[in-house]
Specification:
By secondary structure, the protein is mainly alpha-helical. The protein is about 80% helix and about 0% strand. Helix 1 runs antiparallel to helix 2, helix 3 packs across helix 4 and helix 4 runs antiparallel to helix 5. The protein is globular.
Length: about 180
């Protein structure tokens, strides 16, 4: 049976590249917040945002399609689909947090806005929601790529992501301290 190259397959590639761009943005952005002069961080961020936009559009289409099929069949299994809804809710929550992230690091007249306690809390919340969203979606991404032995690959990916997100969290805290001292 021939498989068609549909939205899920496109989303698999988009998710893969989005994750790579995000991790690069997080590493370079963390170094920048630690005081290392690095250029290209915002470019990586905007490339990541392009992938995020496509991912959101595809995810929304697939979610609406799923909801329509549930409605048409007369069943929703809302309680049984907790992971499905957790993935969607964390994804849409990230959109809001990403907007705050962009606003926190946009320059106005070559100056960044003050990095307040509120902004720090929003950035740490973004890191936590990102961690949860990525953790919930690594195994489906590996399955989509046809990887059969999930545990070793998933474990490696989890460790790498948690290290990078931990460094990003520390970088936000260091940046907050540097800004306010």
């Amino acid at each position: 049976m021939k498989r068609k190259f549909g939205l899920r397959k496109i989303n698999m590639f988009v998710s893969h590249f989005m994750l790579i761009m995000f991790l690069l943005h997080a590493v370079f952005g963390s170094l920048q917040m630690f005081g290392v002069n690095i250029s290209g961080t915002s470019v990586l961020g905007w490339i990541t945002m392009g992938f995020v936009g496509v991912h959101v559009i595809i995810g929304t289409i697939l979610t609406v399609t799923t909801l329509y099929a549930c409605h048409k069949a007369g069943v929703s299994y809302f309680r049984g689909n907790g992971l499905f809804w957790a993935r969607r809710i964390s994804g849409y929550l990230m959109i809001v947090l990403i907007v705050f992230h962009i606003l926190a690091f946009r320059s106005v007249d070559q100056r960044l806005p003050e990095f307040t306690v509120f902004r720090l809390i929003v950035m740490i919340t973004l890191v936590i929601v990102l961690a949860l969203h990525i953790i919930m979606n690594v195994k489906p991404l590996l399955i989509a790529f046809g990887i059969k032995e999930l545990k070793p690959y998933a474990a490696d990916i989890y460790v790498i992501i948690m290290i990078i997100l931990s460094i990003a969290t520390v970088a936000f805290i260091v940046y907050f301290i540097r800004w306010n001292s």
